[in-house]
Structure formats: C-alpha cells, structure tokens
Write a structure and sequence with these properties.
Low-confidence stretches: 1-11, 18-32, 254-273
Number of domains: 1
Mean pLDDT: 83
Radius of gyration: 20 Å
Number of helices: 13
Distance between the termini: 21 Å
Shape: globular
CATH class: Alpha Beta
Helix content: 25-40%
Number of strands: 12
CATH topology: TIM Barrel
CATH superfamily: Glycosidases
Order of helices and strands: EHEEHEHEHHEHHHEHEHEEHEHEH
Length: about 375
C-alpha cells in the first residue's frame, strides 16, 4: 500500500510530558503518566450503524491505518454497548495491527434527551459505562474513554434538575442572578460527567477519560466546571471543529445555507460548492487568526486547569472547494500542533469527509479515482501537519 510521506504520524505522550511541553506549571511529583490520544481517525458505522459509512471493517482496513501510522482510532459505540462480543472483536482486531481506540459513547438526540430529566435514564447510562469499562479496561487496545460524543444538556433546566445531575449548588446571590446563556447547561453537564467518570473509576479502569464541552463547542468551555484534577484523575477535555459551517458543511443536507453575497469561487478546485477558505462568512473573515480566536475559550480552560485538550472530530466536506478544504485543514492542524492538542480526523471510510470515499455524490471526484478510493492529498496534509 503506498503511503503519503515518510514522517511517522504516531506520537505518544502523557499528561506529565504534555504539561511540561506547554510550560503551564511545574508538574507535581505525584503526576500519573496517563497515556493521551494524539493523532487518530474516527471509524464510524463499525459498532454503531450510521448512514454514509460502511459497516464492518476487515484486516485490509486495519493494515491501511497501521501503515498510515495513526496512533489511534476513535470508536463510537451506543449505550447498549455493554461489553458484548462486537466491542471485544473490534479491539482484538485493532490490537493485532498495533492500533488503539478511544471508545466514545454516542447517543442520538432522542436517546440523550431523557438523561437530563429522568433519574432512571441517567442510571442506565451510568451502568452502561460501568459495564463497558469493566469489560475492556484490561484490553491493550483500549486507550481512552469519551463520555459523550456531543453532550447537549438543555439550558432551561431548573436548579433542582441541575443538582440532581450532580451539578454544583449556586450561592444565594448566584441563584438570584439571571444565568448567562450556556451557564446552566455547563453546570448540568459537569455534574453528570463527574458521575460517569466515577462509574468508570469504580469499575477499576485507569484509561484517560475525555469530557467534551457542551455541543462540542469551544465557546462552551467558558461555562464548563472542571470534573476533577487532570493529573490525578486522568481527565482530558474535548471539542469538535467544523467552523465556519457555511464552509465545512458544503454539499451536505444538514449544512447551513450558503450566503451568496459572501461566496468565494475557487476555480482551481473540483468541488461542488462555491464558498472557499480563507473567506468571508456571515460578514466576518475566517482565516487562521479567526480560527485561533474561535479556539480561545478551550485554550484558556486548558491553561487555567492544566487540562489536556482533544479534538474528537473535525474536517471539511468533500463538497467544499478543494484548495480551501486543504488550507482549512492545514490551519487547524497547525494550531493543534502549536497548542499540543490531540485529534481524530472526522472519517476514514465516509461519504462526506472520508479519506476513502466509495459511494455518494462525492465518489466521482478526481481525488478518489484510484484503486484505493483514497484522497492522497488529504492524507498527506494529516501526516505533514501532525
């Protein structure tokens, strides 16, 4: 299998090494060397069926990922993944090729909605995490746990509901104030995340646990409460990166409508969409500096709490202008490298963002017209910017 680039993509690091590299503070002697996820890729549709992705993956797929030198794969599962044979078989296959997994619990909006108001629904998720962690904690391919792919707590929860979720009780003065947008959701998710972390640790698992910001939005870090000590408790914090969506989601049914006034044609690309990057979106210019400002709340949270960061999903639709797509990825990955942020690209075999595209409207693009249906330029960017 041809490989784009010779530089290894894999870089294993630990909490201790990351804190020293960031020069945030002198690490305490008792720091545990939790192994952090660095450069990886998401495998959707393997354990949790999803449209636009294939089902089972075989040894050829694993061999590709190993040859491309990713350090891990991000593996979404459902709350019913209680340690059945499918997760075991997936980890066994990854281990045979020297790959490790970030196991992420992914719930649909309908599956997630009850947990914010119903104690029985919360207990079901807590029990699912306890059972899953107990089952896979000793597997050599199990690298980390991601509590929820996209936590989406309502910002309209009552004070009693937030407390029931494990969120902190407000002071008398704080209770009298009108909460800022996102503050209630942040307190609610922080409380539930602490409960789920407890379930994993009660099971005896010692893998890193990733707590995503509400909605995966870096801005939500402004209202997220720390779940524990990153060094002592093995915690990393996560987010997703698809901003601005008017650019990254072009050609997808759920993408935001494109403002024709700000359209930036890219005649050099083979894409379906007219809006490129850098460019103007919603009256605002987006470039690397704007992207760094968008990341600022996450970076500030990291500095304040000495907390490693992980981007569990990012990418640009294959429907975006080609030059802009690759430039956006270089901008984002350069910021990740500069700020010591681990990441997993949005998709391996995926009809929207995939390194490999075998079906769907983008499969006819020139970039995929080779024997492996592989976007070699995209792979090269992921390797060179790591």
């Amino acid at each position: 299998m041809p490989i784009a680039g010779d530089a290894p993509l894999i870089r294993q690091t630990t909490c201790r090494k990351l804190i020293e590299a960031m020069s945030l503070a002198t690490p305490r002697p008792a720091v545990t060397d939790w192994v952090l996820p660095t450069q990886g890729i998401t495998i959707d549709g393997w354990l949790r069926p999803r449209a636009n992705t294939p089902g089972d993956l075989d040894d050829d797929d694993m061999n590709r990922l190993a040859n491309w030198r990713f350090s891990h794969v991000r593996l979404p599962v459902g709350s019913g993944a209680d340690g059945g044979t499918s997760i075991d078989q997936a980890l066994d296959r990854l281990a045979r090729f020297g790959l490790r997994a970030v196991v992420s619990m992914e719930l649909t909006a309908a599956e997630q909605a009850p947990i914010w108001a119903d104690a029985a629904a919360r207990e079901a998720v807590r029990s699912a995490w306890h059972a899953l962690a107990k089952r896979v904690q000793d597997h050599p391919a199990c690298l980390a746990f991601e509590l929820l792919t996209d936590p989406d707590p309502p910002d309209t929860l009552s004070a009693d509901q937030v407390i029931a979720l494990g969120g902190p009780r407000l002071s008398a003065m704080g209770a009298r104030r009108t909460p800022l947008p996102g503050a209630t959701a942040g307190r609610a998710w922080s409380g539930l995340a602490s409960t789920l972390l407890g379930a994993i640790r009660e099971a005896g698992a010692r893998q890193i646990v990733i707590v995503n910001a509400p909605q995966g939005d870096p801005a939500s870090f402004a209202h997220l409460r720390p779940v524990g000590d990153p060094d002592r408790d093995g915690i990393s914090y996560g987010f997703r990166a698809f901003a601005p969506v008017a650019f990254t989601m072009q050609g997808l049914d759920h993408g935001d409508p494109i403002d024709p006034v700000s359209a930036q044609p890219d005649p050099g690309g083979d894409a379906c969409g007219p809006v490129s990057y850098p460019g103007v979106f919603g009256g605002e210019r987006w470039d690397r500096s704007r992207m760094e400002a968008w990341l600022a709340p996450a970076l500030q949270f990291r500095e304040t709490y000495r907390a490693p960061l992980y981007c569990g999903s990012f990418g640009v639709s294959a429907g975006a202008p080609r030059n802009g797509q690759l430039t956006w990825l270089r901008s984002f990955l350069g910021l990740c490298r500069h700020n010591h942020i681990g990441w997993a690209y949005a998709g391996y075999r995926d009809a929207r963002f995939g390194l490999v595209c075998e079906s769907g409207p983008f499969a006819t693009l020139d970039r995929y017209r080779n024997g492996y249906r592989l976007d070699y330029d995209l792979l090269g960017v992921l390797q060179s910017e790591a």
